[in-house]
């Protein structure tokens, strides 16, 4: 078993100036190699504390990957600290030195003396070439622990790891076996309800593993299977997916990087249909999310942001008496908005969102009271009522997502 | 001295599904409180390894802040682990339990038994209310070390820390007005141009420090002053700010958490004016951002998302010959869109966005070609042309921000 720890070195991380996206990238890559990551550590540009972090990692990991601290300045001390801890000298790598000299010659800049420091490597280490910057990476194994040092800038680190780091790890740890993973995306069901429905499957998980994650009103399940044979790993995933979908398939809308919006566009394009929206509480969010997808113009006509009753009445033809008796936050208003925006924009589908985003109540309704209307050419209009909770932002975002979810349901039913 | 360590709990971080943005947020906040952060640690949903991480942190920190692992599932074990380590019982917080029950009642969902777990707190801990979710946070000091437990979702954690966590830390560590900071927000000028204009000031910085950060087409400068006397710290900030604004004040639109959108709403409300928008390439983004601000209804009428030429023609009255000769991506089209949406929505200001978001060219124009029209009741309409670069997302976002920037300039000039 390979157990990895990722140590990011840099005071800018501890000041919150940047997020540790290097650890995220490396974790994804290592998961794909079948390597367990049990800890991430972030430490500043301080030799004593870095030494402490390395010593702790040595007690619990057999692969320690460092990012950052390979540069030319006095603050960069990753190599120097590890050199001291392992009792390995730093020696100049001639090829790296020539590359650094060539870089300065090419950019017509004088090479200051401190840049030579970047060509120093731990004696006996394999050099990982930096094709996007100056400081090379390196890797070596001492007393059963493999140390890999990578530069901090993601533009240098990522290609270095993919091209040289990962193959090194495959070799040193004799990694064969395949890891296959698949993300199932759910909407309309909460994380705890989903877990309750799948409790026995999640408890019994081993291969594939099943990892739930909640985010922005959605829940995802990441299935990860390990097998020597790739086809067999895929079969394990198919089997687990089938067991899951038998129970909660109704709420599963897609896979991996799909979103409710890309899925909605896809379904509309399959039919050659267009959509128009009338947005009150969402204020343009639904159309904005749809049109954020390249190629949206094939299926999106446009729509009206009817934030005030005046716009609902004058632009979208909702009669004033209806607004005065039923209110804007009502089933008949949602119905008319969806139907009228559809005809006005000459679209196949009209969708409407009217309700209370908060923080204050509206027309006597609490925040989260929402009506979503769906009008399809030649069919009866449907209106869905929601009672959402959360912040103004959460209510608006979920409302737009529910719009996609209801529309996808409607389109699936009418197939 | 307060030395903090941030421990994020969650296997999704170790799988690289998300980046540890919570540690970034908290690090920024702690820096603002004058608290040193020396380590970040990430550990999975595993009691043994979490225990190990806590024990390591206890040897080197007197403030340990945890994020994540407070939810309802069996994977959530932060409280339970700390309870065991500190020998503190978990007890039900009645107020938190009532809030959770109310949440389920309000959303018409059955409350599963495991949700009650979220109302458990460490005996004797101060409860940090969760106003955006269910699991409360908590904080307590045992044997000279303060433990603060916060939920994982940033939407819950951030407001909880700001409103309840930071005041708790100020109290327990007797932090008084030693650190004052102020963020100046710039738009319309690049990071390197700003740094060049301020090079000598940035080089000579010590108190206050000046830290530039570029993000989403904006640049911010964070000024941080340290002084025993709060009034003196503020004076140092005022002095630095004045020196900066003398040079680049034209591009400075606001302070701290202000955005171009909140600023635009503020200026409109001051005049009692309303705004309407016609959005082509932005697809609703401008109105969505404006209406994301609570209270936007006082100044936002609504508008039209005119993604297709059909909608530009039929809903917004742009004559077909104009679309055929000048094109949709043109100065006269932007002008008419702004004027017509203003009158249609009976607003004081009409603003329009038409152009090419990409990735493909449109009407022979490269991505980033954008026209922004501004029509104000009783004044001449103005149209601004932009040549932006970047991804589809970046072009759309910057276009909407330039809309605010031009409108703020126009309003300031016409005062």
From TrEMBL, chains A, B:
Ranges of residues in domain MoaB/Mog: 5-171
Coiled coil: none
Family matches, as Pfam families: CinA, CinA_KH, MoCF_biosynth
Entry-linked SUPFAM superfamilies: CinA-like, Molybdenum cofactor biosynthesis proteins
PANTHER family from the UniProt entry: NICOTINAMIDE-NUCLEOTIDE AMIDOHYDROLASE PNCC, NMN AMIDOHYDROLASE-LIKE PROTEIN YFAY
Family the entry assigns: Belongs to the CinA family.
Protein name from the UniProt record: Putative competence-damage inducible protein
Organism: Geobacillus genomosp. 3
